[in-house]
Design brief:
The protein has 97 residues and is mainly alpha-helical. It has helices at residues 18-44, 52-82. Helix 1 (18-44) runs antiparallel to helix 2.
C-alpha cells in the first residue's frame, strides 16, 4: 500500500489551505516592507530627486510584489503536494532520466 504524499494513510490528497497562503502573503509583505525601508535609505543617500508620491508608489509596489510572490510560492507548494500524479512527488538526486 502506498502512502499519500503528505504521509496520510487515507489516500486522499491534503486539502488546499487558504489560511496558510494568507499567512505567507503577510510574511512576504513584511519582507517587502523591510526591503522597502532599505530601498528608502538607499534612495535618500543618492542624488536622485523623486517626489513623495512616486516613492510611496514604489514602496507599495515592492511590498505588494513580495506578498504576491510569497503567496504564489505557498499556493504552488500546496498544489504540488496535493497533486495525484507521482511525477510531482518524485525526488531526483542530481540525475535525469
Amino acid at each position: 500500500m502506498t502512502q499519500a504524499p503528505s504521509g496520510q494513510n487515507s489516500g486522499k490528497p491534503p486539502a488546499f489551505n487558504g489560511f496558510k497562503v494568507l499567512w505567507a502573503a503577510f510574511i512576504g509583505a513584511g519582507i517587502g516592507l523591510v526591503l522597502a525601508l532599505f530601498l528608502e535609505t538607499f534612495i535618500r543617500n543618492t542624488p536622485a530627486d523623486l517626489s513623495n508620491n512616486r516613492l510611496r508608489y514604489l514602496y507599495g509596489v515592492v511590498v505588494a510584489s513580495a506578498a504576491l510572490f510569497s503567496s504564489s510560492i505557498e499556493s504552488m507548494r500546496q498544489l504540488q503536494e496535493g497533486a495525484p500524479d507521482e511525477e510531482y512527488h518524485h525526488t531526483q538526486h542530481g540525475h535525469h532520466k
